[in-house]
Amino acid sequence: MPGYLPFAGALALPAFVCDNCGFWQRHFAAPPSCPLCLDARHVVPQEGWRFRGVAEAQASFPCHWAEVEPGVWKFWNEPVTGIGPSAYLIVTPDGTMGFEGCPVFSEAALDHIASLGGMTILSASHPHSYGALPQLQDRFDPELCLPAADFAWSAALQVSWPYDDVLEPLPGLTLHRTAGHFDGHAVLHDRRRGIVFCGDALKFELDPDDPRRALTISAHKAFVRGVPLTHAELARYRAVFAALDFHQTWTPFEQAANVGRGEVLALIDGMLAGRPHAYPVPVAELNPVA
């Protein structure tokens, strides 16, 4: 149950944010390195490590928020270094759910979340977008739902609701593990709104004149390094997306209102038909799958 911490000592340690990728660690001093940057999907900082404490990160990276759809709030930092994902808060009659973390939340942003009812459930697609989940857990003590497959990345957190492949922590909001990009990579399906929060399963390039319209779509094992997914990984993606009804697809960075189930399946089918690749495909060239 929320609040039950059989070993809370690690969570009492100071938090430090990696300036290169935004990954949080709890450590007795500035960490010697960042495990997420050392992972093959990322790159190490060219000029060495820099870690910021929470107060310094809050002062350096202003936090902004907006209601991007009725009942869905987006939080982001600008300017920011590193990966810089956005966080989403979904308000429902049964509670509020946070998905993904921006690099750092300001005190004003946390107060705004409190004014919306706090946070009942918290999750994320994968470690690249964990961001400041520790801040949300410290402030609101939500149920933290993460796939067991990515448990090794959660040292700065207290996982209270691990799951294997599918979990519906609130009515109408369902987590589905896709694997692929990370072993525990997951997407969140909002059935009522017809939105899939797809994490890094997909990547979009947006129209500069219409920031909700995707021009291209792609899928990668590692974005920074341009590594493709295998056919087996793509087949698992397809099985997950094919079972969901959605007409919008949102990443931690982009909100593609013109890409839904049909376009996503068309992309994956095209990738399965040839050798693995990671290049962007124009949305206009896709023949949406019925």
Automatic annotation (TrEMBL):
Q: Which domain of life is it from?
A: Bacteria
Database matches in Pfam families: Lactamase_B (PF00753)
Entry's InterPro entries?
Answer: Metallo-B-lactamas (IPR001279), RibonucZ/Hydroxyglut_hydro (IPR036866)
Kindly give the SUPFAM superfamilies that the UniProt entry links to this protein: Metallo-hydrolase/oxidoreductase
Domain named Metallo-beta-lactamase: residues: 151-212
What's this protein's name?
A: Metallo-beta-lactamase domain-containing protein
